């Protein structure tokens, strides 16, 4: 995966799941989007989730859950 693709995945995951993701380069030189970086990788970027669900344009987990049971 390219660094650009890893950054894209980290951004989408942070917005969708609502937790921080990191873009890292592994010891082998691969670029990854991870939730918990290992100690032997280089952290290239930190992607935090938006401050509120309204910032993403997506419904949040709780809203989706309540809609599913309505």
Explain what the structure shows.
- This protein has one domain (3-68).
- The relative contact order is 0.21.
- 33% of the residues lie in helices and 21% in strands.
- Strand 1 and strand 2 form a beta hairpin.
- A three-stranded antiparallel β-sheet has the order 2-1-3, with helices on one face.
- The radius of gyration is 14 Å and the shape is globular.
- It has two helices and three strands; from the N terminus they run αβββα.
- By secondary structure, the protein is an alpha+beta fold.
- The model is unreliable at 58-70 (pLDDT under 50).
**Which structural class best describes the helix and strand composition?**
alpha+beta
Q: What is the number of domains?
A: 1
Helix content: 25-40%
How can the largest sheet be summarized? 3 strands, antiparallel
Instruction: Please indicate the percent range of residues in DSSP E strands (runs of 2 or more).
Output: 15-25%
Mean pLDDT: 82
Order of helices and strands: HEEEH
Number of discrete helical segments: 2
Strand order of the largest sheet: 2-1-3
Please state the overall shape, judged from the principal axes of the Cα atoms. globular
Tell how many strands the DSSP assignment holds.
3
> What is the alpha-carbon Rg in Å?
14 Å
- Give unreliable regions as ranges: 58-70
Distance between the termini: 40 Å
């Amino acid at each position: 995966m390219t660094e650009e693709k890893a950054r894209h995945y980290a951004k989408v995951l942070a917005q969708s799941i609502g937790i921080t993701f990191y873009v890292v380069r592994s010891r082998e030189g691969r670029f990854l989007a991870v939730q918990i970086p290992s100690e032997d990788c280089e952290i290239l970027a930190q992607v935090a989730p938006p401050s509120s669900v309204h910032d993403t344009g997506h419904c949040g987990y709780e809203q989706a859950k309540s809609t599913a049971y309505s």
